[in-house]
Amino acid sequence: MSTLPPAIRTVVLVDDDSALRLALTFMLELDGFAVTALESGEALLQAALPPPPVCLVLDQNLTGLTGLEALAVLRARREQLPAVLITSHPRTSTRETAAALGAVIVEKPLMGESLSAAINAALS
What we know:
Order of helices and strands: EHEHEHEHEH
Pfam families: Response_reg
Protein name: Response regulator
Number of domains: 1
Keywords: Phosphoprotein
Structural class: alpha/beta
Organism: Phenylobacterium ferrooxidans
Oligomer: single chain
InterPro entries: Bact_response_regulator, CheY-like_superfamily, Sig_transdc_resp-reg_receiver
Largest sheet: 5 strands, parallel
CATH class: Alpha Beta
C-alpha cells in the first residue's frame, strides 16, 4: 500500500479572452484541478509544462497561433499530453485535425460539467 499522496491533476488552460480564462480557472480549481493559465499559443510553446498528470485545454480561436496549430507544434516536439479543444461550431476540417492530433473537442457554450468530464476522461 502506497503512502504517497495522489498526484495533483493539472490543467494548462490557453485562452486569449481574459474574462473567460479567469472564469474557467475558477471553475476548474473548484473541480479540484491545479490550473496554469496562459493567454496564447505562443506563450504555451515557451512555457515549461508541469509534470504529469496534466491536460491541455486550448481555445481554437486564439490570436496568433490557433489552438490546433500550437498543439501540432507540441506534437512535433513529441509532447503527448492529453488535449481538449474548446470551440464553437467546429468545421469538419477542425474535427479531423483535432482527431489526428489526439484532441477531444468540447463545444462552446461550455455547459454543466462537460469540460471537467472531458478533462477527467482524457486523464484516465
